Amino acid sequence: MIDYSVLLTNGLGQAVGTSAIFFALLAIGLNVHFGYTGLLNFGQIGFALVGGYGMGISVVNFGLPLWGGVGVGMGCGVVLALLLGIPTLRLRADYLAIVTIAASEILRLLTRSTSQTNFTGGTQGLTGYGTAFTETNPFDQRSYSLLGIGFQRGELWAICVGWTVVGLSVLLVWLLVRSPWGRVLRAIREDEDAARALGKNVFAYKMQALVLGGVFGSLGGIFFALSVQSLTPDFWSPPQTFFAYAALILGGAARVLGPVVGAMIFWFLLSVIDGFLRQATAGTDPLIAFIDSQDVGAIRFVLVGTFLGLLMVFRPQGIFGNKREVQLDVR
Amino acid sequence: MRPPGRVWSGEPGPLAPRVLRSLLAVLIACTGLLALAAPALAQPTPAPAPEGIEIDGTLRSGPTALEGVTVEVLGDSGQPVDETTSDAGGRWELTVPEAGTYTFRIDPASLPAGTQVQQGEVTRDIAADRLSAVIFRFGAEREGLDTSATGQVLRLLVDGVRFGLVIGITAVGLSLIFGTTGLTNFSHGELVTIGAVLAWTLNVTLGIQLIWATLIAIVLGAAIGAANELGIWRPLRRRRASLIAMLVVSIGLGIALRYLVLIFFGGRSESFADYNSQIARSYGPIALTDKDLATITISIVVMVGIALLLQRTRVGKAMRAVSDNRDLAAASGIDVDRIVLFVWTLGGGLATLGGVLFALSELSSTVQYEMGFRLLLLMFAGVILGGLGTAYGALVGCLIVGVLVQLSTLFIPLDLKYLGGLVVLIVILVFRPQGLLGSRGRIG
Fold first, then answer.
1. Residue A134 to chain B, least CA–CA distance (Å)
2. ipTM exceeding 0.90?
3. Does A229 fall in a domain?
């Protein structure tokens, strides 16, 4: 039998949990790239990776304090954006797509390479950078229960910090896109040549957008690294970027709150479907017999991939978006 | 660069449900084909022995089993742990007390006369819950491998050409699809994987010899390519979907297909039944196994075939015309949709062939669910280096990428060798974004 109340509480827990925060931050960055500027960054997970590892390595290997590590992590995001942007931003949009997806995969290979074990911990991963974060945890009970959803104290602390960061990021994006700067970004998205004809330095604006969105991605990586307290290379694989895209498009690209709402709904759905499949395939007399319970994790990717494609075709504006704002084309 | 409104002829008609249906149909078709691979999952993993972990292997030199060869295992700091001799079938079995890093060594003195071990020491991480097999490679006694710098460079050069040819075979389809439709197809790697998995299924599960299995798989792969075009991309073009939307769809499709393969095929590397271990033969300064030589020969023949197709045949000329200027081609009476369908069919077949050759030559005859995606990044590097949308550019670019990737192992660790591909990609975009053979106008 399927226990629906467990599915619901787990789903709600996921919707406000650390994964939703992580993908909300990635999607906020992608919103600046894709939603407002029309840049196709398919390597957002790479920005998160350099954020997380930048912080982890500088704290563990170079003994920086945690806030210094966070700064280094964000700095790494800026550097990566510059490296990827300089060769590609003058070209057609799909060149950036190819280069970013390749870069994110290369970064993953680099962090898991045995030759880098001294720095990144190789496939074993990196730990021990986040003690300063756990020590400042003001919650002193072992676990807390909110609306029937249980949270460990570490998780609750991470969630509080995470949603604060998300809130500040959203506020920043909201202020920026209302500014003249934000209007130039939209102009570039709609018609790059027109923006250029008005005397705007399109390349510089695109680069600024790429850097800003990349830093949001790095923040996401830093947050995730702090909340799980360990960095393992294979977590940062290319499909994660598309989870963030799915969240963004679901919520509505080019909307300030789109990525946040999208990430919450996305993780709620994912958790419910996941939990349903796990319950339905487990036990001696499973409801769904033809799927092995071990394959549920892979089914998640199949569903997200299919869902992303269908969403893009049938409702590119997502739930809250404006269809006119998301009809991009390769230029 | 092409306004979508003008490009796609045909009625704006067929609407949402039709695309949805055909998308599902393609997914289901792929699932059905992959379901054949399922028996592989049925093999139970043997439980680890209660005390110690057993490691076994079989010693073979070509077709002959090696009997009475001493195999020993050394611990972390070089202390001997266990020792055994192989039986009449060449089988040996050793037990180590716990998980850890061990070195397995063949005693060269115990080898039969005339046999030489190519790599007599293998260091492995042994885990308790994983099946561990240690493979030693043997060869007939011959002149020792040339270990001088020139010899090494020459060997890597040949490896690189072989690798580049394989990338090129898969990338021609990618480049032609881009040229004729403007689509950057991020699911092309999955065509490679599915092709190789189909060949593996025919070869291992159904017991068909690999050459025939590959030929059948190529036909199936071509059909899958055509099904992609008919089921997804043509309806999307009819709907006037933007190229960016199609690009995102191709990424979604790629992820969905990759993990479908994972579900039905499993996450482990699986070997083909044929051509598993071959002895390298000497050809002057270089040594090649027969399958390496076959890979190079087949690739070159196929490449020449593609070149003749593009230059001499009507359909090839039409393909180039559509790549060059779609509207003009359509206006001069070329059935653009038919040409695009042909390109997809060709691309699917070539991806399958490339997948099998990639597995044979680069992955030591194993098939793996992520192989296509790994190759995709190198395909993009090669295609962009040569010039997006040009068939010959793809060939040249991929050859260069293959050689660079292999040569880069002289300087960087083996597990980072794909890094070279990306560096090429970025450098070429900075200095010559249209690629070596591309035209300036295409890059926007």
1. 32
2. no
3. yes
